[in-house]
Fold:
Amino acid sequence: MGTPSASKPMRADARRNYERILAVAREVFAEQGPDAPMDDIARRAGVGAGTLYRHFPCRETLIEAVYREDIERLCSLARELRETHEPFEALSQWMRAQVEFALMKRGLASTLKAAMDKDSETFALCRNILNEAAASVVKPAQEAGLIRADVEARDVLRMGHGLAVASDGVPEATDRMLSVLLDGLRVTA
Structure:
């Protein structure tokens, strides 16, 4: 699938090439879309075509790896926030990151999602880890009695996405709308 094998560690130079290819592919896909020439990605990453195809045998594996890595970063943030912040603050900061992610990656993420098979393992994995990440910040806030018990993790994901869509083109409204949304999640006396 083009991902580093857990059973066979990558050499340091191979790992650097893999990471550089992903970083460059993210930039190139953002600039040119998912149909950008693979040779352009290899050239800008400073690797040969053979190195690129050794890591990513086809365009789809590269697209999926870029999308997966972006989603995994967002999900890792949920864990970090949960460990370092009070429950409502962790939820608030993660929702802010989710909205910023959706705003910054909106074109790229939707383009990459459109280029992926909706039945792919990567798409299912990303959906699952996003749901888990959202739950990991929602449940502690609910258990602490800080947000409504009827809020589901999936609701938080949908609201964050909706807020990003609503504030696209009016970034000055993002913080205000997010504050209103978060206040709406709070338990009322």
The domain at 12-57 is CATH 1.10.10 (Arc Repressor Mutant, subunit A). Residues 87-115 form the longest helix (29 residues). Residues 17 and 69 are 15 Å apart (CA to CA).
